[in-house]
Structure formats: C-alpha cells, structure tokens
Amino acid sequence: MSTLHIRGDRRTLITGVGTLGLGALLVPALSACGGDDGGIGGADAAAQTPDVPDLHGLETAEDIWDALLDGNQRWADGKPVHPHTDAEWRTSLAEGQEPVAAVFSCVDSRVGPELVFDTGVGDLMVTRTAGNVFDPLVSESVSYGPAALEASLLVVLGHQKCGAVTAAHEALLAAEEGTELEEHDYALPETVEALRPAYEAAKGESGDPVDAMIKANVLLTIQALKEHPNLAELVADGELTVVGGVYSLETGLITEIS
Ligand SMILES: [Zn+2]
C-alpha cells in the first residue's frame, strides 16, 4: 500500500487494495488537471446574477446541495441563469480549478449535470457512464474531485427512463426466465452485468420495476462510494457528503433519494 499526499498534507489519498478489489491506484498529479495554488478567479470573476449565490462562496456541503437543487428548480422552471459561463470567469480558471461538487451520472444526452443544476464551468467535476454504473476504473475519476480537489459534496444522479437500466432489466429478466430477447444486442453486456446487483436489489419493490432498479442503482452506488478507499476516510471525518437523486425527464426536477 502506498499513499499520496496532496494539498499540503491536508488530505491523504489512500491507495491500494480496497473494497472493490482495486489494485494500486495512482491518482495523477494535480498539475495534470489543474493545480490548487492559484485559486479561482476573484470577486469580480465570481460575480453572478444577484439572487443566485456563488457556489464557491458556500461553506458546507449541505449549503452547496441546497444551492444545486435551487439551480435545478431554475432549470425545471425554464429560467436558468447559466452562471459561470462568461469569458472572465473562464479565463480565471486557467490556473486552477476548485469544483465544489463531484457528480456521477448517466451518459444520457438529456441529463447533462451542468445544465440540470444550472451551473457553469469549474463548478462541478462530472463523471458519466451508461446507467451511471461503477467499476474500479471509473471509481478513480469519481473520487478525484473529493479526494484531490476537496469537493465536499458528491452527487450520484440517476434518471427516469434510463435506457441502460431498462435494457439491463430486460436482459437480466430474459436470462432469468430463459427466454430469447430480440433486442438483446443493444444491451451493453458489461453494463448489464454491472447493473445486476441493482436488478436483484429491486426485486420485491413496489411500482415500476425499472424505476425501482434506477433507484436501487443510485443507492448501491452511494454505498460503494462511501466505502471506497479513496473516500471512506473523508466520509467518516465528515469532510465529504454523498447524496443521491433521480432526475425526471418530464419535469426537469431532481428528487433526492436515500
Ligand atoms: Zn441513462
């Protein structure tokens, strides 16, 4: 096991064999993704629409989550303000980044986190996979924001009518029932397998089985992230809050789940 000290020893990123059976992890140096020395912008660069708080001025993960949900409400209402998208802000980020939250979501083209939370560049560190499925390689990207850049909030975001989860549900159900599935080819085999735990966990839940599987997938992913070797200590120390939500394609709103 080895350790990588970051941010002047304020945090130690533990690497090695973890709960997911990871081999030695090597997190790239901060310089690869933007350093932390220069900070980001200044008061002028951070200026935004007056009634929209600057995410970077918020103290706690709870405040950041509340602000993101407020941004989601603006998005759902069709009144996004698109903060942090001006040239001055953009150039202020050239020397470094300090995303306030990490978001792990689906690749679906309708669920872009920066848009549905009404945020801009430098605000969120986003990782996306089909069905927001998780594996050791992806885990390094998801954990990078909290572990290396001190993002205090990690959001796992599933969404309504997720094609990957729907396809996995069909494939796993067909396999279980021993039936042929005409459209099986479109179900990404690795993704289907990664979603098997959510399929099993959703059994017996009331309501639509795909909705239940989407929710189960978010909850299982939250648990896996909380136990991840890069994040477990941060969670235990209260330095990282992990939350989950499901985005509605119909309303544009995110419902927090736990
Ligand atoms: Zn999806």
From TrEMBL:
Pfam families: Pro_CA
Source taxon at top rank: Bacteria
Family: Belongs to the beta-class carbonic anhydrase family.
Function, as annotated: Catalyzes the reversible hydration of carbon dioxide to form bicarbonate.
Name of the protein in question: Carbonic anhydrase
Organism, scientific name: Glycomyces niveus
